[in-house]
Amino acid sequence: MGNRRQKHEQDTAIKLRFYFMSLWLLFVLIFLLTVDIPICFSKDAHFIGFGPLLKRNWLAFISLLFAILGWLVASREKQRWAGVTNPPYKIESIKNENYEYLTFLTTYIIPLICIDLTKIRYVFVLAVLLVLIGFIFIRMDLYCG
Questions:
Q1: Residue ranges of the alpha helices (H) in 2-89?
Q2: pLDDT(63) > 70
Q3: How far apart are CA 102 and CA 8, in angstroms?
Q4: Which DSSP state fits 108?
């Protein structure tokens, strides 16, 4: 029973990594939509400081961090599976579903970036939606990467 539970936890961890990797584009788009760096070319212009810059761009920096983490997870998984001739997971079915990426983009990513991220309430709604979508993806074994 313990071995079965451990395998289930490993499977869930892999599914979570794949889900996180599939959201990198959303995190990049959120960064681009919310980053607010004041730029001024006047002679008396000065740097506002890291504190105010971080306060002004907290969501953008978190999104950028998540995008970088998604890339690092993808690189780690690629390195982890490189040269493996007998992987520990059995492939039960393979489907040629090239349209899945477009469906994922139009169904999840684009509507999520249209949420008003200037209000903290909507940031929480986005977080709940990402957790809910992740739960569904993991339970149904759906991944886009």
A1: 2-22, 24-34, 50-56, 58-81
A2: yes
A3: 30
A4: I
